[in-house]
Amino acid sequence: MSIVSAPFERTTSYGRGTAEGPDAILEASRQVEYWDEWSRQEPFRLGIVGEPLVEVDGTPDEVLARIRHLVHDRLAQDRFVVTLGGEHTVTVGALQGVREHFGAVGVVQFDAHADLREEYEDSPLSHACVMKRALDAGHSTVAVGIRALCAEEQSLIDRESLAVIWGWQLDGAMARFDRFLERLPETVYLTFDLDFFDPSIMPATGTPVPGGGLWYPTLELLDLLFRRKRVVAMDIVELAPRPDLHGCDFLAASLLYKSLGLWQRYRR
C-alpha cells in the first residue's frame, strides 16, 4: 500500500491551510492503534509505504502530471494507492493515473459540495470542478452527502440523472447507496473530501457545511463500498489543520487506517 502526499493548495476559496493536511494526517497516524476493531485486523502488516512528497511548485497541470505519474506507477506495481491532499484538485491527477492503468472506473465521492462546475474563478482545475473533470474523462459517479451546490450543478445532476445522496438523506442512506453502487463498474476510485463530515466532528476544513455525516454511519457506508466493489485507489482531501483541533487530524488518520483495513479485508 502506498501513501502519496500531495500538499497542493492553489484554488481554495474560503478557509485555507489544506497544504498542511498531509503532514498533519501522517503525524496523527502515529497515535492510531495498530489493531483496527472495525475490520478486526492490523492493516499495517501488509506494508505501508510513504512515497516521496509530490513537488507542488509549477503550474497546476505540471503538479497534476506528477501525481498522475506516481499513482500510475504504483498501481502498475499492484499496490493500493492513497493520495493525501491538499485541496480536492489533487483528485484530478490521481484519477488520471487510475484511468491510464484501469481505463474508466466508477468514482464514489463523499463530499459536502457537488464539485460539478465547468470552471470556477476562471479555472477548470479548481477544487470546485473535480467531479466535472471526472465525468468528462468518462467515469461514472456516485456522490454522497451533497448539500452545497449552484444552479448550474443542479441542472447537470437533473439532466444526466446523476446518482446523488443528499445531505438530508444521510439518515438511513444504506439502501439508497446499495442501489446506486449497482450503476458503477466493478473497479472503483474513492475520493473523500473531509467536509463530508458534519462540522460538529470535522470543523478543520476550508468550508464546513452543516448537516454532514457522522462517524459510525460513514464507516457502514464505506464497509458496504469496499465489500461490493473493487476499490483500487482513494484520496482523503481538504483537511485544514488547526493547532487547537488536533482531534480533526486524528479523525482523518483514523479514516485512512480504517479504509486500509477495509481494503485488506475485502480485497480481490
Can you walk me through this structure?
By secondary structure, the protein is an alpha/beta fold. It has one domain (2-266): Arginase, Chain A (3-Layer(aba) Sandwich), CATH 3.40.800. Helix content is 37%, strand content 16%. It contains 8 helices and 8 strands; from the N terminus they run E-H-E-H-E-H-E-H-E-H-E-H-E-H-E-H. The chain has helices at 21-29, 60-76, 90-102, 130-136, 151-160, 174-181, 215-228, 246-266; strands spanning 2-6, 49-50, 81-85, 106-110, 140-146, 163-166, 187-193, 230-237. The chain has an 8-stranded parallel sheet with strand order 2-1-3-8-7-4-5-6, sandwiched between helices. Helix 1 crosses helix 8. The model has no long low-confidence stretch (mean pLDDT 94).
What keyword list fits this structure?
single chain; 268 residues; alpha/beta; Arginase, Chain A; 8-stranded parallel sheet; 8 helices; 16% strand; globular
By CATH's scheme, which homologous superfamily applies? Ureohydrolase domain
Could you name the ranges where pLDDT drops below 50 across 5 or more consecutive residues?
Answer: none
Q: What count of domains describes the coordinates?
A: 1
Q: At CATH's second level, what is the architecture?
A: 3-Layer(aba) Sandwich
Shape: globular
Number of strand elements: 8
Quick check: average pLDDT? 94
Alpha plus pi helix count: 8
Percent of sequence in beta strands: 15-25%
Computed Rg: 17 Å
> Could you tell me how far the N terminus lies from the C terminus, measured between alpha carbons in angstroms?
14 Å
Strand arrangement within the widest β-sheet reads 2-1-3-8-7-4-5-6
